[in-house]
Amino acid sequence: MKTPPFAYARATELGEALEMLDDAGEDAKLLAGGQSLIPLLAYRLARPTHLVDIGRIEGLDGLRESDDGLTVDALVTHANLESQVGLPPQWQALTEAAALIGHYPIRVRGTIGGSLAHADPAAELPVVAMALGADLLVRSIGGCREIAVEDFLYGPFMTVLEPNEMVVSVRFRPADAARRSAFDEFSTRHGDFAFAATAVAATFEDGVVRDVRIALGAVGPVPVRVHAAESALEGSDLSSADIAAAARLAMEGCNPAGDARASGEFRRELVEVLVGRTLRRLREMP
Ligand SMILES: Cc1cc2nc3c(=O)[nH]c(=O)nc-3n(C[C@H](O)[C@H](O)[C@H](O)COP(=O)(O)OP(=O)(O)OC[C@H]3O[C@@H](n4cnc5c(N)ncnc54)[C@H](O)[C@@H]3O)c2cc1C
Question: Which of 17, 41, 193, 238 counts the highest number of beta carbons within 10 A?
Fold first, then answer.
């Protein structure tokens, strides 16, 4: 289908993009990789009056590790994340999740900023952001603010972003070098949106785990942490029995709705399998 009409402008630097967005009013949209927005336009599910293209702004596509954690700029693509094989193991869930997003042509265009701003409940990166702990740096011409991912996402395809705000980077909170993380999902074909997804992270200390974080995706309006399963694993040596008990708690801690692709009950069973599988992988990581 043809897109509805809109005015188009390409920004070459951040300040210019923020001005354009502000000037264009509340029915304007940023265009990053276009992998979610363009299909929405084609199906006429979005009718912005203006598109501000930020895809070619220089200097917004870097990754930096520091005492503040891992900062990933908004225009870093899924393919770029996927190729970060040299990242320390505590960030592994990020590279694993990026590799499972859509197909390669989508991953070379789609961006982390776009994925979080789009807030698809089945998207991979918001789940990882919940499990690793992340804050979004958001800017407008009026200033900037930092928003924890738990506060940023509030419903399916809904965030607290104001129309004149842009996600500039995502900062994954500092993690102990002994932390490990992993991601897994189930979909019928590689590249399809997941029926259920999980990201887990935990720090290993003297053979037991601390600070366990388990996030689930595609089983509710936004990614959720399963605190009961996390607490049950604190101080565990990740024995098979402990993992099975935590996976069961994770399943009991979610109540996904069914749809044409999968029933709610099937998604819950997937949660149990996926949480068990990712925790076993965590246990085996060097
Ligand atoms: C066939 C197909 C399969 C896909 N499969 C998956 C999948 O399995 N998993 C998955 O997660 N995604 C999937 N996607 C979507 C893809 O990952 C997108 O790349 C991603 O959701 C959005 O990133 P983008 O850069 O393309 O954003 P765009 O499409 O450019 O924008 C999406 C939305 O975010 C806003 N936006 C973009 N950047 C910013 C910013 N920096 N600050 C504020 N707002 C911003 C836009 O205004 C728009 O509302 C798929 C897409 C297609 C076409």
Answer: 17
Q: Is the pTM higher than 0.70?
A: yes
DSSP-H helix ranges across 64-207? 78-82, 92-99, 104-107, 112-118, 124-132, 149-152
Phi, psi of 224 (to 5 degrees): -130, 150
Tell me the best of 60, 82, 118 to mutate to test the pocket of ligand 1, counting ligand atoms within 8 Å of each CB and taking the most.
Answer: 118
Given pLDDT bands bounded at 50, 70 and 90, which one contains residue 286? confident
Residue 85 pLDDT: 85
Written as six digits, the tokens of 3 are 């897109």
Domains of the chain plus CATH, in order, are: 7-52 (3.30.43.10), 63-172 (3.30.465.10), 179-284 (3.30.390.50)
Buried b (16+ CB within 10 A) or exposed e, 201-224: bbbbeeeebbebbbbbbbbbebbb
- State the Cα–Cα distance between residues 116 and 103, nearest whole angstrom: 18
Q: How far is the CA of 21 from the centre of ligand 1 (A)?
A: 18
Pocket of ligand 1 contains residue 39 by CB under 6 Å: yes
| Dist CA 107 CA 142 (whole Å) | 32
Pocket test for ligand 1, best of 21, 35, 60, 139 (most atoms within 8 A of CB): 35
The response to whether residue 33 sits with its C-beta less than 6 Å from ligand 1 reads: yes
Question: Is it the case that residue 278 has pLDDT exceeding 90?
Answer: yes
Residue 166: closest CA among 16, 10, 18, 50: 18
Tokens of 36: 């979610």
CA of 246 relative to ligand 1 center, distance in Å? 32
114 Cβ closer than 6 Å to some ligand 1 atom: yes
